Amino acid sequence: MRADARENRARVLTVARELFAERGLDVPMAAIARRAGVGIATLYRRFPTKESLVREAFTEQFALCQAVIDEALTDPDPWRGFCTVIEKVCLLQASDRGFTAAFVAGFPDLHSEVRERTWHGFTALAQRAKDTGQLRADFSPHDLTLVLMANGGLSGVPVEMATAASKRLCAYLLESFRAGTDELPPPVPLSLDQVLR
User: Fold this and answer.
1) Residues 17 and 51 grouped into a single domain
2) Quick one: 191 and 98 in the same domain?
3) Where is the HTH tetR-type domain (predicted)?
4) Residue 21 to residues 32, 59, 128, 153, Cα–Cα distance (Å)
5) How far is Cα 28 from Cα 34, in angstroms, rounded to an integer?
6) What does the alpha-carbon distance between residue 100 and residue 1 come to, in Å, rounded to a whole number?
7) Are 25 and 105 in contact, with CB atoms under 8 Å apart?
């Protein structure tokens, strides 16, 4: 790829991430091309579908999310691993609003394998923390959706404030997830897609 083509591609990806963060995944491809200063034909030559653009724009974040789960699963202390996942995923959500939309996107095949692997990893991690008696027995993996919905409420504030508030919110939530606290109402089987609604 020529140097100018590489620069155009990098600029398109940067602009796409910015616009997805600002306006969600519904932003038109033409708006991305316009802000990146490239023609629509150039955009479609590099990214023939919006799904391919979203996938490429968030590849690093998807890999990071999976790495967080994988690392937590190797932690000899399941509670610490569980807490690390909640904290890091919420921080990623608070600092990059477009990522959450991409992760739970309505595109049928968009990283579905990654989502599935991440979900199974988180479920296994939660079970390990329960088995050691550190995570409350009535915690459901679906509660992760509640956490993301609550944390997503910080989207209207500047990123610096959102990340600081996210850390505090996680501290509150993790304390309530600890075994030995009062019984909760039954879990609600929310899907990750409901985070966007």
Assistant:
1) yes
2) yes
3) 6-65
4) 12, 15, 34, 14
5) 10
6) 31
7) yes
Shared domain for 36 and 85, answered yes or no, is no
C-alpha distances out from residue 172 to 87, 88, 99, 132, 167, Å: 11, 15, 24, 21, 9
95 and 152 in one domain?
A: yes
Structure tokens at 41: 């034909």
How far, in Å, are 21, 92, 137, 139 from residue 101 at the CA level? 8, 12, 30, 25
For residues 55 and 111, the answer to whether their CB atoms sit within 8 Å is: yes
One domain for residues 33 and 73: no
- Convert the pLDDT of each residue in 21-31 to its tens digit: 777 778 999 99
Task: Provide the domain limits for residue 10.
Answer: 3-56
Q: How many domains does the chain have?
A: 2
Mark whether 104 and 186 lie in a shared domain.
yes
Please give the backbone phi and psi of residue 135, each rounded to the nearest 5 degrees, phi first. Answer: -100, 135
- Reported pTM: 0.75
CATH, residue 150: 1.10.357
Residue 175: predicted pLDDT: 92
The secondary structure element, H or E, covering residue 65 is helix 59-74
Q: pLDDT value at position 109?
A: 53
DSSP3 helix / strand / coil % (the chain, rounded to 5): 75, 0, 25
Strand partners of residue 178: 135
